[in-house]
Amino acid sequence: MKSLNKIVILLGLSALITSCHDKNSPNYQYFPNMYESVSYETYSESAAFGNGKEGQLVPEGAIKRGFVPYEYPNTTEGYELAKANLKSPLDSIAKGSDKGAQLYGVYCAICHGEKGDGKGNLSKREKFLGVPSYKDRVITEGSVFHVETYGLNAMGSHANQLSPDERWMVASYVMKLKSEL
């Protein structure tokens, strides 16, 4: 009988507790700043930082995540240094992949031609004149990478469209085309 009384009392307490709960109102919130952060206006005054401004400049020497710095300057000397010293960090499998050919077809063939002969559609239609054949140029993987990164003459930079690894794949494919001409 005592166990039956305990069960009845327990059921009564649980019914009392759950029946008074309103499911439409939120529970208590402990440490509300963890859930609802304090927002600041970007250029407002704030005591959070030493200079009293909310918007801060990027610290000196900071680089964004995933960015690989390129050491060669955008000058003729930088081009010559890249031509002489810069080597591809890719292994032979990445160099031999079809991705370099696909990227070349998307970004380069329109001017340089499918074979690298300088006879792409824009050259044929005389939109860009003087696109050289790779056969006529003294180039290395390093110089091709440098030109893809900074651009040269009428060719603009492709650094925003292609990652460094993709630029190396295209450079490797350009050297393959040069050897076939």
What's the short version?
By secondary structure, the chain is mainly alpha-helical. It contains 9 helices and no strands.
Could you characterize what this model shows?
This protein is mainly α and 181 residues long. It contains 9 helices and no strands. It has helices at residues 2-19, 32-35, 76-85, 92-95, 99-107, 109-112, 121-124, 141-150, 164-180. Helix 5 packs across helix 9. The longest helix has 18 residues, at 2-19. The model has no long low-confidence stretch (mean pLDDT 85).
Task: Give descriptors for this structure.
mainly alpha, single chain, 9 helices, elongated, 181 residues
User: Strand percentage, roughly?
Assistant: under 5%
Strand element count? 0
Mean pLDDT: 85
So what's the overall shape?
Answer: elongated
* Uncertain ranges: none
How many individual helices? 9
Helix % is: 40-55%
Structural class: mainly alpha
Calculate Rg over CA atoms.
Answer: 32 Å
Order of helices and strands: HHHHHHHHH
The first-to-last residue Cα distance is: 100 Å
Q: Report the biggest beta sheet as strand number plus sense, adding barrel if it closes.
A: none
